[in-house]
Design a protein that fits this description.
Layout (H helix, E strand, L loop, with lengths): L1 H21 L8 E9 L5 E10 L2 E10 L2 E10 L6 E11 L2 E9 L5 E9 L2 E14 L3 E15 L2 E3 L8 H10 L3 E11 L1
Antiparallel strand pairs: 1-2, 1-11, 2-3, 3-4, 4-5, 5-8, 6-7, 7-10, 8-9, 9-11
Length: 192
């Protein structure tokens, strides 16, 4: 009798396991909304959204604020399964630039100099990245993004204070801050 009971329990356990594996996975959300941050990504802080175009393709869009002004963009994410996955992505982004900002010049020894005015000109970039997706509760996504942002046009800076000549240190700072280069991003999306 005891052997029959144990055999019955084991049989029911395996039958349940087999049936659980044959259940269809829940449908992937059609829309996502979230927040993002990064370098050559959504900006220092941005609102991100995505629309599922196909089972494996998302259209991704964002708007945020970065060091080069407001930033917005859109692109495609491929292999976006509703589970953990690596996803190649391509996007086009635009930074609006900022006019008439105040900057304290530095000499080549990093000592403070004159306060000067400058303009950061608009810029357009092409981003090629790989995203790593982690899916939570079958709908929400945590996304880490790594890649490169190619400056297509713009992204210049101009010192507008008359008779000011920038030091090599000033040029290094603004060349480093201008759009383009390594791209890193982190975002969390809620499936809707």
């Amino acid at each position: 009798m005891k052997k029959l009971l144990v055999t019955s329990i084991v049989t029911l356990f395996f039958a349940h396991s087999i049936l659980a594996q044959s259940e269809a996975p829940p449908p992937s959300p059609k829309y996502y909304l979230g927040l993002g941050t990064g370098l050559n990504s959504a900006g220092l802080l941005g609102i991100k959204s995505a629309f599922r175009l196909h089972e494996l393709i998302l259209i991704d869009a964002f708007a945020g604020l970065g060091t080069w002004g407001w930033k917005y963009g859109a692109g495609f994410v491929f292999n976006a399964k509703n589970k953990k996955s690596f996803c190649p992505a391509i996007s086009l982004t635009h930074a609006t630039g900022v006019n008439d900002i105040l900057y304290t010049s530095k000499d080549d020894n990093n000592n403070s100099g004159d306060e000067v005015r400058m303009d950061l000109k608009p810029a357009t970039m092409l981003n090629l990245t790989i995203q790593r997706h982690w899916v939570f509760k079958e709908t929400n996504r945590l996304v880490f993004e790594f890649g490169y942002s190619f400056l297509l046009n713009g992204g210049r800076y101009e010192f507008t204070t008359p008779n000011f000549t920038p030091t090599s240190f000033d040029k290094q700072v603004w060349d480093l801050l201008r759009p383009g280069g390594i791209s890193l991003g982190l975002a969390f999306y809620f499936g809707l």
